[in-house]
Amino acid sequence: MDIKAYTTRGCKYCTHLKELFDRANVSYDEVIVSDREGDFSMDIFRNEYPKVVGFPFVIIDGEHIGGLVEVAKLFLEKGLVKSKRR
After folding, report:
1. Which among 39, 41, 32, 40 is positioned nearest to 14, based on CA atoms?
2. Are 58 and 71 contacting, i.e. CB atoms less than 8 angstroms apart?
3. Structure pTM?
4. For the chain, what is the mean pLDDT?
5. d(CA 32, CA 84)
6. I need a surface site. Which of 47, 56, 71, 80 has the fewest CB within 10 A?
């Protein structure tokens, strides 16, 4: 799986997403979006993905998946993680 995760600094959902990736034992490329030097520019991100309104934003194998909830649902469907519900 080719996973690209766009994240921002201090984002709790981004942190949970990375924990989900660890639970699923999948590798991913993280792209930090901010206006800090060396990061992916917020302006460029908005230009490339104008319909995205929040972070994290995940693309898997070229398909726009969405955020944490959408990735978690996909991973549950694929059996990569199990629900913690009892």
Report:
1. 32
2. yes
3. 0.91
4. 94
5. 29
6. 47
